[in-house]
Amino acid sequence: MKTHPHLFAASPVFMAAPTLADMKRVVDAVEAVVRIPGYQEVVLGWAPPIAMKDFGPAGALMGYDFHWTESGPILIEVNTNAGGAFLNAVLADAQRACCVGPSPSAGDVQSRFTTAAATMFRREWRRQRTAGTLRTIAIIDEDPQAQHLLPEFLLAQAQLEQQGFDVVVADPGELIADAGRLWVSGKEIDLVYNRLVDFALEQPANTALRKAYLHGEVVVTPNPHVHALFADKRNLIVLSDANALRELGTPEDDIRMLQASVPRTVAVTPANAETLWADRRNQFFKPARGYGSKATYSGAKLTRRVWSEILAGGYVAQAFAPPGRRRIYRDGALVELKVDVRLYTYEGEVLLVAARLYQGQTTNMRTAGGGFAPVFEMGDQPGNPT
Fold it and tell me: Hey, is 266 helix, strand or coil?
């Protein structure tokens, strides 16, 4: 509470079972399209060279982020560096205990998730390695001691060590690629749980990791190839275009699902700049290789100065989809917060569902009463989160 006062929301989010089932069907549709060779050819066409080679990993803890509208779930984006899963598993148990009271199921969410995460990392290892055993995991991020989600790194380290792994948390600058192996503090690393936002490993500080990755000397998850297939915002251009999907051979059921759930997305170019500016209030602008909410802009609040930066290149425009709403009491007053819902997945299977409550343009972890919130599945009636 002293260092991260708005990390955890004051309230959970309740969602009907059909709502979550619809979100899972969207995940299934995206995963199916990503497996189509023609789709891979298209999206790898705008990816950096390092993303071309597939070493095997499917991508640890993918994040599918949704808004919920009256017409159904809207997929805002897919993230390969989705943070918060380990924290949310603990939070779900804590709030379930507060809401429901002690029960035989107390602790089940965290226990199930930790077991699933350990299995996930072992499977990622096996997707690239034909022999040996996964023993050492490095959780890598730039200056992890200064990261807002350092508590999650430490929690993940502790929980994975309980599963039998040797785990370190480190800055990429601490890594050494030598003798066909990757090392940190004299310890050989088998697998890197990659939390860097330098998705192509282009920064000088990531040289050792890049070298070891390209030579197949360490398993990296998520890696540049997975990011290129799933998380580049330009991919939403394809996923939201029924004609493009049809030309790729996408089944009609998947096309209908994606048409209903992926907002129309286009690249911002000089050719469509005038049209997009005129319609800016109905658009949301994102950098193609961006992450989180960095450098994203609601068209309704766009200035000419920011618009000139967007026109400089590398942005997509996504049809605006309003977030869901959650009413809570804060300091004795009824307050309405916005809601994003995140499905943490591995190989298309949902490992955990969580939400983020916030006020403002984007999720920010600075809203009183806001932050990560567990999602409780309630009954079988459709409707908005509450």
Answer: strand
At 323, the amino acid letter reads P
Residue 260: closest CA among 1, 22, 64, 54: 22
User: In whole angstroms, what is the distance from residue 157 CA to residue 173 CA?
Assistant: 19
For 265-320, the fitting CATH number among 3.30.1490, 3.10.450, 3.30.420, 3.40.50 is 3.30.1490
Structural tokens at position 296: 């994203």
333-359 residue pLDDT tens: 999 999 999 999 999 999 999 999 998
Q: What are the residue ranges spanned by the domains of the chain?
A: 135-221, 265-320
Cβ contact 60:86 at 8 Å? no
Angle between helix 150-162 and helix 85-100 axes, rounded to 10 deg: 80
Q: Is 97 helix (H, G, I), strand (E, B) or coil?
A: helix
Please, are residues 352 and 74 in contact by the beta-carbon 8 Å criterion?
no
Q: C-alpha distances in angstroms, 366 versus 5, 147, 152, 302?
A: 8, 15, 17, 22
Q: State yes or no: pLDDT of 99 exceeds 70.
A: no
Which SS3 state, helix, strand or coil, does residue 225 take? helix
Q: Strand 72-79 to strand 175-178: parallel, antiparallel, or no bridges (unpaired)?
A: unpaired
Q: How far apart are CA 149 and CA 365, in angstroms?
A: 11
**Whole-structure pTM value:** 0.93
The token pair that represents 152 in the structure block: 């999650």
- Integer CA distances (angstroms), 94 to 82, 87, 100, 281, 335, in order: 21, 11, 10, 40, 23
Taking the C-alpha atoms of residue 66 and residue 46, their distance in angstroms, rounded to an integer, is 25
Q: Point out the least confidently predicted range of 1-15, 95-109, 126-140, 349-363.
A: 95-109
**In terms of pLDDT, which residue wins out, 379 or 145?**
145
What is residue 14's three-state secondary structure?
strand
CA dist 119 and 124 (Å) reads 9
Asked if residue 49 has a cis previous peptide bond (ω within 30° of 0), the answer is no
Summarize pLDDT for 160-212 with one digit per residue, the tens: 999 999 999 999 999 999 999 999 999 999 999 999 999 999 999 999 999 99
Q: For residue 63, how many C-alpha atoms fall within 13 Å in the half-sphere facing its CB? A: 22
Closest CA to 337 of 323, 320, 354, 351: 323
Pick 135-221's CATH classification: 2.60.40.10, 3.30.230.10, 3.40.50.20, 3.30.1460.10. Answer: 3.40.50.20
